[in-house]
Every structure is written in C-alpha cells, then in structure tokens.
Specification:
Blueprint: H1 12-39, H2 41-53, H3 61-75, H4 78-89, H5 94-108
Length: about 110
C-alpha cells in the first residue's frame, strides 16, 4: 500500500535529484576554475576559494584542494600551495602519491 503520509515532492527522490544537481553545478564550476588557471591564476584561485566556502559535496573536495594547490604554486604562493596540497594528501591517488610527497617535502624546507 502506498505511503499516503508523504506529500508530492518529498522523500529521497527529490533529495537525490537535488544532490545530483548540486554536484553537477559544483563540478562545472571546478572545471571552469581549472580552465581559468591557464589564463588567470588570481581568478581561478578566487573561484576555488569561493567553491570551498559554498560547502561543496565531500566527493569534490579533492579536485578543489588539488586545483588550489596547483594554482597557488604556479602563482608563486608556496605557503598556500603547501596548505592545499597537504589537505589534498588524504585523497591523493596512489599513482600521484610519491610526486605529491616530494613537492610537500620541498615546500616544507626552509628557504636559505
């Protein structure tokens, strides 16, 4: 027998659809920031930070952290690059782990 207490538009179907739509919107903005990082690092960093403040789905955090680390490094902001790469570390694919650890080690060394 159908659940008559549930009103139209309520329940998991709407929540799942909304979550998917939000993830797609975040993914599109992450892709836009990645494309911007080729031409405008400041704008890319601003967009990545805006995405972090917007409480993205946790599955998208690795792309944001990695993008912020890469863009910060390319801009010359080594402190921010280190911070974001360290946040990315727990999500880093095994194939990239040694390269990431090497960059983190280099950035942690004090400058002469």
């Amino acid at each position: 027998m159908p659940d008559s207490s549930r009103k139209c538009g309520q329940g998991p179907h709407l929540e799942e659809r909304t979550s998917r739509e939000q993830s797609c919107a975040f993914t599109a903005r992450i892709q836009h920031a990645a494309a911007l990082s080729i031409e405008d690092l400041r704008e890319a960093i601003r967009l990545y930070r805006e995405l972090l403040l917007a409480n993205p789905p946790s599955a998208l955090l690795p792309a944001i952290y990695c993008g912020l680390g890469n863009a910060s490094y390319r801009k010359g902001d080594l402190v921010d690059a280190l911070v974001y790469w360290e946040l990315y570390r727990e999500y880093c694919p095994e194939a990239e782990e040694s390269a990431l650890e090497a960059m983190i080690a280099i950035l942690r060394k004090p400058l002469p």
